[in-house]
Amino acid sequence: MSATATPRVAVVMPCYNQGKYLREAVQSVFEQTFADWELVIVDDGSTDDSTAVAKSLIAENPGCRITLVSQANAGPSAARNRAIAATRAGYILPLDADDRIAPNAVARMAGLLDGDPKVAIAYSDWDHFGAVQGVRRALEYDFRHLCEKENLFTCTSMFRRVAWEKTGGFKANMNLGLEDWEFWISCGELGFYGKRIPEVLFHYRLKEKSRNTTAQEHYRVMFAQIVANHPRLYPTGTVQAAEKILSLHRAPAGAAVVQDPNARIDALLEAARKLADSGQKREALNCLKDVIALSKSPDVVKRVEAIMELLKPGSPAGAPGPVKPLEDAARCFETDPSDASAVAVLSLAREKVFEALEKSANASPPSAGSTAELETMKSLLTSSFFTHDAPVLRQRLGVWRGDRTIRWFAEILVTSPWRLDQLPRLEQLPEPLRLPILRYLLKMPHCLTAPAEADDCGAHFNRVADAVSAYTSKNPPPNDAREVLECFLASHNCIPLYVAEGNTRPWMQARARLIERFLEMSGCAVDYSAPRLQTTGRKIKVAFISQHFGHQTETYVTAGSLHLDRQRFEISLFALSSNPGPVETYCRSKVDHFHVLPNSVREQVAAIRAAQLDLAIISTNVTAVTNPMALIAAHRLAPKQVISYCSPMTTGFRHADYFMAGSHALTPAGRGHFSEKILEIQGPPGCMDYSGEPSARSAPLSRARFGLAPDEVVFLNAASSYKISHECLDAWCRILGELPGSRLVLMPYNPNWTSQFPRVAFERNLRHLAEKHGVAWDRIVIAPGQPTRQAVKDIEVIADVYLDTFPFAGSLAVFDLLELGIPSVAKSGTSFRSNFSAALLREFGVTDLICETTESYVAKALELARNASARAGHKSALQRGFEVRNRATSPELFGEELGRRLLELCTG
């Protein structure tokens, strides 16, 4: 696991006096077939050698991402919450320090969550070892059974981070056990459900006397606490009985027994006031969140605001300070920007810091604020709250009279980083704020809501990269330079740059230089004199290197390139992890060798170099974020290295020699956008091979399912919200505005990119544009995310016309629509990535659907919508195109063309 990439999975391990078992538990994590993980160990006030063992493990495994957090003993709930707060991974897997997981546990659980967005918790069967042995088969998920009967699964079950954020995490009042059961019920109450994997993936140690066996003595009390925490799920009599049990054991039941909404609001507000007065600000905030969830009436909001005043820094509520509830509010805002209580907390904190900066700007000497204000600013900068409009604060910026440097600190509280006019040098920033501000500067818009915003983001990204380069070139203390580089690598996200119209080459070369610098500081040998072996009389040794070769978009793109002549090529696959299943099996059937790489970057690179390849082809997207494959791709691995079109733009890497690009997608200007030489393949950029795709039952959906009439003209787009530009949405709404009675179906939340989407911001922008063009909101249908390609196609059949995205064009999505015979309107551009869909249309000979301007794009969409016979003609042409063997539909034909070009590289 890379020490720089934000991992997909975090294994969180609370440890209290389990030093003698800790190494065994951690070793089970090291043995995972799934490579994209990090491990967070929380020493929960141990008095044995747990800390020493953890530090030893970290020192022995420098290539693995292991974090040790130490705290005073607070129990497993607090320890797990602390560990989860220390990571940004999207999937969380708790593992106690005396237990173990099977080698394929992370892969199987993450695979389930990847494949089914409706599932939030992946759990498995387990076995016991130690004092008691045996296998336990978990029950199938049943929320009512979970609430009333028993815990269906163990704490070592993987869940989506969003579930932890929405529920508030593991509850502190479950201090005598059953905290995991309570957490699963909290998840289910909010609609986060689980699914069983019928395999033993977890090994549960039972000792003669452990916390788990002791917890049984407190079962009655803790179950009563569960009932008190979730009164809406239980009958009134059960809640009242729980209150009595808790009162006997002096465990506060809070306002749990109140059933009437108004009475419950009163009780919650009273509880919040008492908690605020006693300094328990986080608990008070949780009560206020519950109040807002029940009612947003003006009277209730006013009462909430009055209590919020008690939570402001310096209020009479006393210690502890405001940072912890502020961190919670920041996390809530990232998940849901419309969360009223989170907005209230963040607004108050921002205003307080802004006022302090105004005062300090006029002080002598000026300063960036007190320690408490710096801590508050750090918490604010972790969120995207700068996107929340603050017109009053902006007015005050306009009449700022004090120190201009301090004004910049005030400005970043209310300004998107890519909108800043200037950046300070990193060495000018206060040391406590240097990394938080760098993370803020590297934030990108979750969705594009203004014209040319992606190009603005690219220019800004380049400025930040230059600032990082300048700072790390001035010989700061080695630890400082490494921290800044690691922060850059872990925090940046280049996906919005895909939507830029301009040349991304300088931006990506700046990024590549920083990745190389970090690797060199980490002791990696980026440069290497790869032996150039005589190829006469032997097969060319070529390897495809990927995150994995299981079910994913990149694998289907790569599979189309595996059809090389086995008499001329010796083909290997190198994967960071094995992903057993029909897709991986199919890929392995097309090659000679399959290798799973070790854990550390240095070991991974050494293993590839040891194969003495002639050609290495990088088959994972290495341009979006700094994933493990990007770190590998920055090294010299073989005499010739090729980037596949899984990466939609240049990598900037010195050791990337060639970029595989289809001639149909290249323009004279676009050729200059690559730092690599072009490995030009005649035809489209690539060829998808879905031969290994798991079969799925097809049940095309009717228009009635989405409230669409049979005679309405339906436009459709299935692209992720992340690749839809503001200009593109504007054109779509303009088309609807010019064609009354037409409808638009969007599928922006399909999980092939991610499981989390900026729904609020995306739909707010879409509503604004619809209003601008006089389009009623009910003419736009946003379909739910679909877990499989076939499920997406079952919806796409309702469309009359497909509207492709621009300037980042569709590829696989457009291929599916063309296969269905649905005409797709495409807008071509200068860059390689802007011509993906146009390249497919050229291969099928349907070039009249390719438009060069937005005006012609809108006109073509309207022309097709108004002419059913034209649509029918295009459908017939597309069906004929799929019947003819071409380089978009025939992996064998594409493999012949690719093989010819690879031979030229190695023997020419």
TrEMBL record:
This is Chondroitin synthase. The keyword Repeat applies. One of its GO terms (molecular function) is transferase activity. It holds the Pfam family Glycos_transf_2. GO terms for biological process: single-species biofilm formation. The keyword Iron-sulfur does not apply. Residues 11-140 form the Glycosyltransferase 2-like domain. SUPFAM superfamilies: Nucleotide-diphospho-sugar transferases. Pathway: Protein modification; protein glycosylation. Gene3D superfamilies: 3.40.50.11380, Glycogen Phosphorylase B, Spore Coat Polysaccharide Biosynthesis Protein SpsA, Chain A. Residues 702-871 form the O-GlcNAc transferase C-terminal domain. Keywords: Repeat, TPR repeat, Transferase. The gene is kfoC_1. Coiled coil: none annotated.
